[in-house]
């Protein structure tokens, strides 16, 4: 099982074996602990819950994490192709689960941009500033005569960013077990220190 909870550190440039310059995103990969295993018989699907960091919890959470003997700060769940996959509750995972060249999918929340208008959010053109035009950055007509309502999904002003995005086709560029760092080729969504989930394709 190749899956890990990491935090984004930043980006660097490296030179690959062919001499090409490539962008690499560095991810802080502290040890993950298996906090729960879900099976098809009991839960209806196969998954593993991983935890990282340390934090205080209430009695309910403390009871849930008692078998794993840790109190994680962050927990995330990863689907499995089959039950268990030789995992045990309380087992610790290190960045060594990945190897250089592994193809991975990376999931993270994009940077939040707050409330944005249609020009910034959807790349709308602004209105004309001559010949009496007064609608410079307004939305424009959103359905007055027909359909006499607003269609769902209409591109309008609203919250921009802070949405979950999965980037596919990235590869592991480096694995540093001494400093607990994983390098992934290309860009990864989200700000620095943001939570990034890595999952191997195979």
3D architecture notes:
The protein is mainly beta and 202 residues long. It has a single domain, classed as Elongation Factor Tu (Ef-tu), domain 3 (Beta Barrel). The protein contains three helices and twelve strands; from the N terminus they run E-E-E-H-E-H-E-E-E-E-H-E-E-E-E. It has a six-stranded antiparallel barrel with strand order 1-2-11-10-7-12. A four-stranded antiparallel beta sheet has the order 5-4-3-6. Strands 8-9 form a two-stranded antiparallel sheet. The protein is extended. The protein starts with a strand and ends with a strand. The model has no long low-confidence stretch (mean pLDDT 92).
Task: List the SSEs and their pairings.
Elements: E1 3-15, E2 21-28, E3 32-38, H1 40-43, E4 47-52, H2 59-65, E5 74-79, E6 92-93, E7 103-109, E8 114-116, H3 118-122, E9 158-160, E10 164-176, E11 181-185, E12 195-200
Antiparallel strand pairs: 1-2, 1-12, 2-11, 3-4, 3-6, 4-5, 7-10, 7-12, 8-9, 10-11
